[in-house]
Design goal:
Layout lengths: L2 H8 L2 H4 L2 H10 L10 H5 L3 H11 L6 H12 L3 H12 L11
Helix pairs in contact: 3-5
Length: 101
């Protein structure tokens, strides 16, 4: 892992994840895209929750697992493994698959 990637892994979700995705999550939580009142909630979400909420918000109800399989297959990456690594490095809860420190 490059130093920039490692440093990015330590950032909070709202700082690390693309702004358009965070804005979608804010709307999913019932606030305006530029309203930061739910950012603490977003920062405490697992990465799997964020992806699931984004999928639901954009009309892909229950699509998050299928998307992970498709992306992993097309790009030949182990998404769950990558998420586990980030969880181990940062202590971020990734949906119960890696215990927090």
């Amino acid at each position: 892992m490059k130093n920039d990637e490692k440093n990015d892994a330590y950032k909070k979700n709202v700082e690390r994840i693309d702004k358009d995705i965070i804005n979608d999550i804010r709307e999913y939580l019932g606030v305006e895209p530029d309203d930061t009142s739910k950012d603490e909630v977003i920062n405490n979400m697992s990465l799997n929750q964020i992806f699931h909420y984004w999928c639901d918000r954009n009309g892909y109800i229950n699509g998050s697992e299928k998307f992970k399989r498709v992306i992993g297959s097309i790009y030949a990456i182990d998404i769950e493994g990558r998420v586990k690594l980030i969880g181990k490095v940062t202590g971020i809860d990734i949906g119960g698959k890696v215990p927090l420190k």
